[in-house]
Amino acid sequence: MKKFDTYLRHKISKEQREVSNLVKDKIEETLQTLPQTTPNEKKSLHLPRFAFAAGCLVFVMVFLLPNVSVVYADTMEKVPFIGDIIHVVTIRNYFYSDDKHEMDIKVPKVEHENSSALDSINEEITELTDTVLKRFYADLEQIKDKGHSSVYVDYNVVTNTDFWFTLKIQVVEAAGSGNTYYEYYHLDKRADKIIKLGDIVEKEAFYEVVEKDIEKQMLQKMKEDKNLVYWVKDATFGDCVSIDSKHNFYWDKEGNLVVPFDKYKVSPGYMGTPEFCVKKDIIKKYLKDEFKDMF
């Protein structure tokens, strides 16, 4: 501990910033309370003494050093668990309603003052909602009073932890027939980087492993419930499960990979938008190291 004590005092003396006497006194007081080891004492540390020393060390590093060291404070600000929270707000709400047509589009904005990567997410969201909006008005002009149409766009935050963020956009469109699909946006807060499915994959065999596991789940579900229909080993549609580097996904609370499908992709419309959970133990060895233990 003596080397660390010396380091703290040296750091304060070299810092090009005025340090209040109160802060100096607090650090000195903390250092004085640390247990001292004499040459005649055994080298092994007893648990109570070690715990006390560790507690004092944490106090100095977390509560005192940020006040005396510009470099240390700047570094601490980049650590995710220090107030690194992303906020999502609705910045626009497009609304239309008459006897036969209805629109309700909520446009979110993801905000964090220290993340430049979020600009890309917000641009993609704007592009998506603008496309849906224009399509609605084009259908409105074409259909007029001869039919019905509706569009709904909403969102929710799936994950917002110290190191990971996921936003889900849901789009429901109906003009003659209905369609529902989702877009997921992921931010790795540790690297301030937008993440697609392909970014977490180390080995290409990952995709086949995920597909086979989903097909296995589908077959089991259909065996248990005759009302369920998935297009796997189907006489008409064959095998429709296909996963690529841009496919939607999200992590559940246990760190398993959840793979959603848009309406009509792997099953009839009445099945909605099915999703399947692929256990992390199945895919772990195919992932990059930084994504092997997400939760």
Automatic annotation (TrEMBL):
Organism superkingdom: Bacteria
Membrane-traversing stretches: 50-72
Keywords, in A-Z order: Membrane, Transmembrane, Transmembrane helix
UniProt keyword annotation of Cytoplasm present: no
Classification via InterPro entries: DUF3298, PdaC/RsiV-like_sf
Keyword hit for Transmembrane helix: yes
Domain DUF3298: 203-278
Protein name: Anti-sigma-V factor RsiV
Name of the gene: rsiV
